[in-house]
## 1
Amino acid sequence: MTLDAKIPPGPIQEKWDNHRFNTKLVAPQNRRKFDVIVVGSGLAGASAGATLGELGYNVKVFCFQDSPRRAHSIAAQGGINAAKNYKNDGDSVYRLFYDTIKGGDYRSREANVYRLAQISTSIIDQCVAQGVPFAREYGGLLDNRSFGGTQVSRTFYARGQTGQQLELGAYQALMRQVELGTVELHSRHEMLEIVVEDGKAAGIIVRDLITGELTRHSAHAVVLATGGYGNVFFLSTQAKGCNTTAIWRAHRKGAYFANPCYTQIHPTCIPVSGDHQSKLTLMSESLRNDGRVWVPVKPDDRRKPGDIPAAERDYYLERRYPAFANLVPRDVASRAAKERVDAGYGVGELKNGVYLDFGDAIHRLGRTVVEQRYGNLFDMYANIAGEDPYESPMRIYPAVHYTMGGLWVDYNLMSNLPGLFVVGEANFSDHGANRLGASALMQGLADGYFVLPATISGWLADQLNQPAPSTTSDAFNEAADAVAERINTLLTVNGTRTVDSFHRELGQTLWDNCGMARNAASLSDARKKISELREEYWSDVRVLGDGQSLNQSLEKAGRVADFFELGELLCQDALHREESCGGHFREEHQTPDGEAKRDDDNFAYVAAWEFQGTGSKAKLNKEDLEFEYAHPSQRSYK
Amino acid sequence: MNLTLKVWRQRGPSDAGHFEAYDAPGITEDMSFLEMLDVVNEQLIHSGREAIAFDHDCREGICGSCGMVINGKPHGPKKLTTTCQLHMRNFRDGDSITVEPWRAAAFPVVKDLVVDRRPFDAIIQAGGWITAPTGGAQDANLTPIPKAVADQAFDAAACIGCGACVAACPNGAAQLFTSAKAAHLNLLPQGQPERWSRVTAMVDRMEEYFGSCTNYGECQQACPKGISIDFIAMMNRDYLKAQFKDRKRLVGASDLAGDGAG
C-alpha cells in the first residue's frame, strides 16, 4: 500500500500558509466541547498541552515522572536552531530547510522540513517571551553558535542547559493552564494501552504508578508525545525511564511504525567504563566548536595525551573532511570514530575512545572563555570520568542518542489511525535518516506550539457536538482487561532472571548487530536471537512485589517487554533497507572511501511497518519521497 | 570496594518504616551512587526481596528526579552534586553508608526513598510563569537584555526542583526553590508586568505546604546547582513591596471592576 501524506499543493513556500487557511477551524466557544489527551510532557507534549489549553480545549496531560518538568527534553544540552540570520552569515529559511534535508541524507519529507524551518523563528520569539534565559552578547542581543552539518551560526543556547530552560518554559506555560483549569494534570501515570474503536483512536488506559489503579480516559483526539525508543539498546544517553510503550501499544493497534532503523549514534559521549554502566552521558555537540578530535598516529600508543607531540596526532576529521572538519554531521563523525577505534587507535584504559582536545582552544581563548562556554559540561565530565578536561583531553565515543524513526504521521501529524496524533521524537517526520544537532528541540516545540494546534482543529471540527466516546464500551473493556492480564502475567512468571539482565542482553545484541554498522547476516541472527530472548523473558523473568502499589520493577518489566518486539522490527527494517543512509549504515553498501552509499532508485521511500502479530514479520507500506527542491546528491562534507 | 548500606525501607505512606542493612560488595569507583544501588537491587531481587524504590531518570544531574539523604546530607558529601552524579570514588572501602529519603512534612514518603514532591508543582502553578500565549510574541531581539541581567536570571533558573533545599532545612521551608523561580522571572523585562502578583501568589501558595524560613542557610549548602540565598532576600523584598504595589488590593477590587471593561 502507498501512503498518502496529505501534503498540500502549491509552491513549498506557500504550503503551510495555504494549508492553515484551508483547514477547518473550531470556534472559540465550541472548543470547550472537545476533550484532548496528551501523553508525555517533554517539549512537544508540554507545549502542545499548554497551547491547546490556551485555545480553550479540555486537555488532560499524562506523564510517568513525578512532575511534568522532568521529562527527558530537560537533559538536552547544546541548543536550538532557528533561521533568524541574526549573525548576517547567509542563513535563511531555505538554507535551514536545505541543510536539514541534506543532513537527513534525503530521506525526509520536503514539505514538513520546510514548514519546520519556517516556524523555527517563531519558536525563539515565543520562548524569549516566556522568559527563557538564552545566552546574550554584551549588547543585550541573543548569541548564536555553530553546530554540526552547517556553515552558519544559527544555534540559540542557554549555557549547556538549553533543553532544561526550554522544557521549563513549556512546563511553566502548562502549569499556568493547570491553574486556569483548562488542563488536568496526571503525573506518575503511565499509559499502557490505546483504545481503538471503529478504526479511530478513542482513548487510553493508564496505570496510576502509586496505587496501581487502572483508569480509562476517552477523548476526541489522542496526542502521543512520548519521545524516542533509544533505550531499546539499554545503554543510551536517554533517561532511564524513556520507553517505547506508548507508541508500541499504538503500533500494535494499527498505527504504522516508520523507519525504525534510523537511529542516531551521537559521536561525543563518555565511553563505557565497566559492566555496571547504567546509561551513557552525552557531551554536547557544541564542544566540537572548539574541541579538536584526534587519536595517536601509532596504534596502541600508551603515552599520556600530553606527551604525544602534534606531529604524532591524527586529527582524522580535519584530515578526512577539511571543509567541515570537526563539525561534520553526527553520523559521519560517529563512523569515523568507530573506524579509528576498530583499527586499534582507541585511547583510554579500555581503548574504547578518541580524544576531544581543548588544549588549542584554551591557549587561543583563555581558560575563562572556555569555562564560560562549556563550564558545566567540563564539570560533568570531571565528575563522571574522574579526569580534569582542562588539563587533559576528554575521551569520547559514540552512543545511542536519538531515534529518527517513530510512528508514521501525515502532514497534519496524524497517524494512519484517525484521531491519533504523534508529535516530537515519537513521530518519524522531519529528520530523515539523520538528525542535525539542535534540531530536536526545534522540532519538538514546532510540533507542540505551532503545528499540532493548527492541524488538530481540522480533525475535531467534523466531530462538533458529538460526545467523547464512552469508556464502558467493548473496546475500552477489552483494552482494560488486556492491560490487567498482562500485569498479572508479568507478576506471576516468577522466574530466575531480573528485568535488567534481560534488557542488557537485548541492548548488547542490538548494539553489536544493529548499531553503527550493520550487515545482512548479523541482522538476521540478531532478529532470531531477540525473538528467542523474548520467549525466554516471558517464561523466566522475575518481577517481585504486587500491582497495587509503587512497583518500579513492574514498570520496567512492561517497558522491556515492548522493547523486545520493537527490537525485532528494528532488525527487520534494517535488513530490508539495502542501502546506507544517515544513521543506517549497511556494510555491504559503502563508497570506496567508506562513506554511506544511498540507493535513491530503490529506497527513496518511508518504510511504514504494519503490525501482524507478535513474532510475525511486519508488513511493509511505503510513502514515496519526492524531492522537488533539494535534489538528492552524494552528501559531501569534504 | 566493599560497603555496608543502611537503607530506609517503607512499604507505603502509612507504614512506619525502618532501616535495613545490606552488603554492597565489589563496588568500583567509576560507579555512580545510583549504579551502586542498581547492583544492590539486583542482589536483592535474586534473593527474593523487593528492590529498593528510588526516583531517578536522566542520571545526568539535570532532571531533578533523584535525591536521597546520604550519611545525613541531601545528595551526599560532595558539594554541587546530585545523587546520580555522585561517584563511588568519593567513598572508601569498608564505609558504612546511611541512605534515607528526603525528610520533610511537605514531602510525604511514597515508598522507601521515593517522596511526593507535588507541592513544588503547586507553587509553579500559582505564578511561576509569564503570561505569553503561543503565537503573540514579538521578535526576540526587540528587547535587548543586559548580559549581566540575563546571566543572573539564568543562575536562578538553573534550579532543578529536586527538593534538597527543603530536605536540608530544619524548618522544611521551600524558600530557596520558590525564590529561584520568582527571581528568574522577576529579573527579566518580560517578567515585569506580573512581578508583584507573581511573587504574592507563589509565596502564599508555598506557605500552604511548607515551613517558614529562619535564615539557617542550609538550603544553599545542600543545593546541587549552587542557587544563592540572595534570591530569597530578593523574593522577600519583592513580596513586601508587592503589598504596596498590588493596585487591585490598594484601590479595592470593586473600584477597578468597571474600569475599562468591555
## 2
Amino acid sequence: MEIAIALFFSTLRQATPLLFTSLGGLFSERSGVVNIGLEGMILFGAAASAIGVQRIEVLTGGAQEWWIPWVGLLLGAAMGGLVGAVHAVASIKYRADQIVSGTAINILALGAPSILLQVLYNNTSTSQEVVNRLPTVFLLGDQLSILVFVAFLLVPLIWWVLFKTPWGLRLRAVGEHPEAAETMGVNVIRMRYIAVILSGVLAGVAGAYLSIGFLNQFVRNMSAGQGFIALAALIFGKWHPLGVLGATLLFGFFQALAIQLQGGEILPSVIIQALPYILTMLVLAGFIGRSRPPAAVGKPYDK
Amino acid sequence: MSRYWFLGVNLLVLLLMLVSPWGVPMREFDGSSYMLNPLGAINPAGLKLPPLNLDWLTPAFGLWVLILIVASGALFLPDERNRARVLYILGGVGLALFALEAILFYQAMDAANQAAVAAGARRPPLRRFSLSLGAYVGLFYALGLLLLARLQLAGGRAFLVRYRGLIVPMVALILAIVIGALVVAVLRPGLGLTGGQGVALREFLAAKLDLVTYTYQILFSPVLSLTGIFSSLSFATPLIFAGVAVAFGFKAGLFNIGGPGQITLGAVAAMLVGVYVPGPAWVVLPLAIIATMAGGALWAGIAGWLKARFGANEVINTIMLNYIAASVLLFLIASNTYKFFGRTVTLPFKAPGFEGRSAEIQPGARLPQIIDLLVPGGHFSWALPLAVLAGIGVYVGLRRLELGRRLLGATGAVIVGYLLGALIPGFAVKVSSDLNSILLNGSFLLAVVALLFYNFFLFRTSSGYELRATGLAPKAAEYAGVNLNRKIILAMLISGALAGLVATHYVLGGGVDGTYRLKQSLPTDAGFFGIAIALMGQSTPLGIFLASALFGVLLSGATTLNVQLGISRDLVTVLQALIIMFIAVGGLLPRYFTDPLRAAQIETEDRARQDEGAAKAAKVVGD
C-alpha cells in the first residue's frame, strides 16, 4: 500500500511538467503551428528561473522570502514566452519551416545556458543551488509542489476555454481551416501569435517546476527529452485536453515506475523508459486508435 | 530610401574605425592587449612595447575617410553607369589599401622583433600580433562596395537573386556571427579590463571590440596550421555524414531528424561486427562499415515504412526512435545482467569496469588514421596523394573527351594510383606529436565518398531523379508512374545508412577519444547539427562539404577559446542554432530570395529591363 501511494505521488510529480508542456503544445498545434521547440522552451524557462532566483538571493543575502520563488516562476514563464515569440515570428511572419525553427530553438537551448553558466558560475553544466523553492503541500505524509495542483486544475480550465468559449472555437477553426476562419472575421495571424506564445509560457512554467520545484538548481539539458515526451503525449491524447491528461498520467506513471523499479526484479528500467516513445509510434501508425492532427498544422498561412 | 540606409552604414563604418583597435602588436596569454588606433594607442593593461614604425596608420585612416565621403556622394550621381564605375574604383582602392596596411603592419612587427633580438633580447618581445577589427572593417567595406557597384547596373537585383543559394546562407552566417559577438561582448568583461569602474568610454568600447575580434580570430585560427586543418577535418567528418543524410531526406521531401538514433544503431552494429566477427581485416573492416550503414538504415527504415504504410509523420517517429535508440544503447552497454520478472538475463557486451563501454574493436576492423596513411613509419607515402590525383585526373579527362564510364574509370585510376604510389619510395618526414594526436581517420575518406555518392545517385541515376521528383511534386511524380511509398522507404533507408556511417568515425576510427570502443557516452549531437549543415549547404554536395568544414574549424577553434578566454565552447552550438534559425527565416531578406516563383519573376523582370536598356543604347549609337 505504501508503495502504491509512493508510486501515485511519484506519478503526479513526473506528470506535472509533461502536463504543462503538453497543454502548451495543445494551444500551438490547435492553432496550426507545430511546436517542436517545446523541449528548448522548457530548458530556457528552467534556466531563467534558477538563475533568476539565485541572482535575487545574492541581492537579498540568501534569506528565505515567500515572494522569491514566485518571481522565479514568472521569470521562467516570461522566458518561455519570449522564446515562444521567437518561434511565432519565425513561423508566422517569416513563414519558416516550423520544424526547422523548432529544431533551432532546441539546439540553442543546448548551448545558450552553458555560456551564461560559464560566466556566472565558472562551470558549464550546473547553476548554484538555491534555497527559495516553490512551496509544497503536505498530503498523506508526502510533499507535492503547489504547481502539481495548478497543472491538474488547468486541464478543465483549458478544456472549457477550447470547447465552450467563442475564443476556443476560433482557435480550433484557425488550426483546421484558416481561410474559412479568416472569412468569418477571425484574425488568423493574431490567434496564432497568442497560441504559440502561450505554449512557450506553459513550457517555461514546466521548466520552472523542474529547476526550482523538483530540484533546486539548473542542470544542463535537465529536461532530458520531456519536451518530446510531452509532444508524444499530445499525439497520444489526440490533441484534446482530457486525452492529454490521460496520456501524461500514463507517461508519468512509466517514468515513476522506471525510478521505482531501479535495481528491482521485474523489468529493467531502461525498457520502461522507452515505453512512452514506442506507444506513441504505435498510436501514430494507427495500431491503437487513430490520432488525427489539426488539418492546417505545419502550414504557413498566406493572406 | 536605400541611399539613406547606405549613408547610415557609412556612418557606422566610420564610428567603428574610430573606436576599434586597428592592430594588436602585442597580446598576453590572458588576452589583454596593446591596441593601435588612429586616435592614439589604447593600452588598458599597461603593456610595454619596443619602438614601432606606425607612421602609416593616420594617413591610412585619412584615406578611408576620403573613400567613405566619396562613396556617400557617389550614390547620388544621376547616371547608374557612373555610379557603378565610381564604386568599383573605390572598392578596388579599398582592397589595395587594406593589403598595404597588412603588409606595413606585419613588416613593422617583424622589424621590431628582429631589432630586439639583435639587441640581445632572449625571445621576440611581440607575441600574438595581428591586424584587428578597424582594418578588417575596411576590407569588408571594400568588398561591400564592389557588390554595391554590381547592384547599380541593370540586372543587379536578378544577379543577387540568381545566387540566392549562396546569399541566404552567407547572410545567415553574418547575422549569427553578429549576434554571437553581442552575446560575448555582453557576458564577458573587455580584455585587459578587470573592474568596470573608472574606465573611459573609449577604452571600454575598444576593449569590448577587441574581445569580440579576438574571439573570432581564435575560432577561425585552425585554418592557419596543418594541425588545425587536420583537427578541423576530424571535427567535420561526422558533420559531413549527418549533413548528407539530412540533405538526402530533404531532396525526397522528408525531414530526417532521427540522426542521433541512427548514429547510435550504426555504432551498435559496428561494435557487434568489430568485436565479435572473426576473420582477416579485408573481410571484417568492410563488413563493419556495412554494418554501420545497416544499423542506421534499419532505424530510419522503420520510420520510412510507418510513413509509407500508415502515413505516420516521419518527424515525430524519428524523434521517438532517437529516444528508443538511447534506451537500446543503455540496455546493451550500461550493464550486463538484467532481471525480467525474477529471471536473470545475462548479456555479453559490457566490458568489465565502472564505465559503460564495450570490449575493444579488433585491430582488423579499425579504420587507419590519415596521418598513418600519409606518413607510415616516418616515411612519406605517395599512395594516397597519387590515388586522389589519378582519380580526379581520369575523371576530368574522361569528361573532357566525353568518353563515358567516368565513374568506373576514375575508380580504377584510384586503385591503380594507390598501388603505384605505394611502390614509389617516399622521403623521411618528421610528424609533430600535436599532429599525431589528431583523430582524423579513414572515416574522412568515406565521408568524401558519401558526398560523391550523394551527387551521383541523386543527379545521375533515374532512381535519384524519381526521388527528387517525389520531393518536389509528389502528385506529379505519382502520376508519372513513380511508386511513392517505395520511394519514401528507399529515401529513408539511404538517409539512415548515411547517418549510420557517422559511427565509422566514432567507433571504428576512434574519433571520440582515441579508444576503439562503443561507449555509453557516444556523442550523437552530430545528428542534429546535420540539419544546420544541410540547410547551410543548401543540400548541394559542395555546399555540405564547405559548411561541414566551416563548423569543423569553429569546433576545433572553440577548444582553444575555452582555454584562453574562458568562453564556453558551446558558443559554436549557439552559432549553429542561430544559423539554422536565420536560414529558416530566409536571412530576413525579401521574400523573392526564398520563394522560387517570385525569384523567377524578379529575374524575368530584370532581364526585360536590361534588354530595354540595351535596345535604347543601340538606338543611340545607330543615330
